[in-house]
User: Fold this.
Amino acid sequence: MSEPVVGLIPAAGRGVRLGLPYPKELYPIIRENRYRPIAQFIVDSLVVSGVRDLVFVINESKHQLIGYFGDGRRFGCNAAYVVQERPDGPDTSRSPGLAHALDAAYHLIHDRIVFFGMPDTILEPADALGRAWCAVGRQADVVLVLFPTSRPEKFGMVRTDAGDRVIAVDDKPSQTDLTHMWGAIAWRPVFTEFLHTSVSERGDLDFATILNGAIAAGMRVHAYRVHDGSYADLGTYDEIQQLDATLRQP
Assistant:
């Protein structure tokens, strides 16, 4: 890949729903008789997509995550870490949110193409981000990698036109005719600047609102549909158990 690219992994969540004694990003997944923590899947996906520099956004308690990934060399990359500061207030159990976490890495990502994926997800094929950027990155400022889902209430659902240009993102709708959600995103520095202005100057913290604002501002936001793969999100025990059952099928 000729253009400079950085991988961005927001891992600052507190994981209170799971209540694990270690970061949820280190939840063990056993596949083909090999152990990998869940976060290693997105790391491997970024590396196989051609990314060599990764930035984890963490909170101040994620020492074990740093201990596992270290400087990244064991995984074929260079890893750096940024601490997302918590806002002042009585509720310190929650992180400030996804948009704030992504913007926390602004000083390390602002002049590079960003490949962004969540640390509790598994993308198939592993190189979905690389495929998406190679397919439509030349004509786009932002590329949303889309996967089909039967649970739209959990995801950011994406509406496109006939040419797969994104019209709008509808976040976690209770009812919708949309069938595809975004599972990972790649973007150019122009969107990093838009995100930074939205968060730091306007105080916008809702990521879907920021994406829709970029579309309204005329940014070229395109979709890449994954037809030969799948997306797994392991945010709850039910989702973890469902994945375990799938992996154990003969």
